[in-house]
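Fold sample X.
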Amino acid sequence: MLLDSSVFEVKNVGLGEGSALPVGVTVPWPSATPPEGWLKCNGAAFDKLKYPKLATAYPSGKLPDLRGEFIRGWDDGRGIDAGRVLLSIQAGMLEKHRHPVVANDGYDSKEEWELAAIFRRAYTQGKGLDGTSAGGTLIPSPTLHTRGSIGNTGGSETRPRNIAFNFIVRAA
C-alpha cells in the first residue's frame, strides 16, 4: 500500500517554523522530499555554520545514513544491548539457535531420534546387527541413517514486516 504524499502539508502536521519538535530530532516522513527546514538522514555532510543547532546534536557535521535501516532504542544501562554508544551502527545478527539432526532405523517405522540421543540411550528394539543393545553405545546397522538436512527458506536478510518511510531530521 502506498500512501498519497499529496495529503501531507507541513503546516498541517506541525513540522514547519515554530514546531514543538527540537532541532536534531529524527522522524519518519511519507514523502521523498523533506519539508523546508528538514534534511534527509542519508549520511550527507551538512554546513555546521548554516545549521549550528543541528551541529550540537551531530557534532561531526554528518547526518546518520538511515536509508534501509531500523532505529533501535539506546540501551542506556539497561543491559539488553550493553556497550553501545549513541549513533553507533550495529551489524545484523541471528540469535543462536538449534536445528536438531534426526536419524531413523531405516526400517518402515516412523521412529526418529535426535542424533545425540542415539549415543546416550540404551535401545531395546534389537535392530542392530547382533540384535542387542548395550547401554550408551550405538549398535552398528547398515540401515541406520545419520544424515539430515536443514531447510533453507527466506532471503538475504532477517527483518520484521515493515513499511518504507524516509527518515528526516529537523535542521532549523
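Fold sample Y, listed below.
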Amino acid sequence: MVKTVEFEVLRKIGNVEIRQYPEILLATVTGMEDDSSFGILFNYINGHNLSRKKVAMTSPVISSEKIPMTAPVISDSRFFTFVLPDNYTLETVPKPEDPRVNIHVQPARKFAVLRFGGRTNSAAVERESGRLLKCLADNGMPTRGGVFLMRYNSPFAPGFMRRNEVGIEIVGN
C-alpha cells in the first residue's frame, strides 16, 4: 500500500476542504510533458540516483494544470512532482543523478482542495478546477499560484476507483 501525505482539514465549504499541509520533501521535474516527467521521476525512485537506493512511492503525484479560463494566476511552467517519504530530509534523501530532478522542501501551507473520481482528462480537470475556483471566489478566499492536480492511484486503476483532487494555495485565514 502506498503511503499518503498527512494533512489536517481546517474546515469545509461545501465539497471543498481547506487543508493545512506540513513541510513536505518533493522531487520535481519542470518544463516537460507528464509522461516524460513521470518516467524521469520513476527512474529516480527506482534507484537511478547517486546512492542507488530505491525510494518508496508516496501519494499523491502532483502536476500543474493549464486551464483555459480566467483564474487569479496560472503558471506557464509545467511541473510534475512526487512526494517523498517523510523519513527523509533534504540531507538524507538520495541525490538524483539526472539533473532534471530537483529535490526541494515545500514549506507548510494551506490549500483548498476538491476531490473527484474518474479519469483525469482535460475536460474533467477543467470542470473541477472551475468548481473549486468558483467556490473560493464566492466565499472571498484569496489564492496564490495556479491550480494543480493530485492523483492518488496507479494509472492502471479503473476510473471508477480513482481518487483525484484539484487544489490551489490559499492566502490569509
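Sample Y note: DSSP finds two helices and ten strands in the chain.
Also: The CA atoms of residues 75 and 146 lie 6 Å apart.
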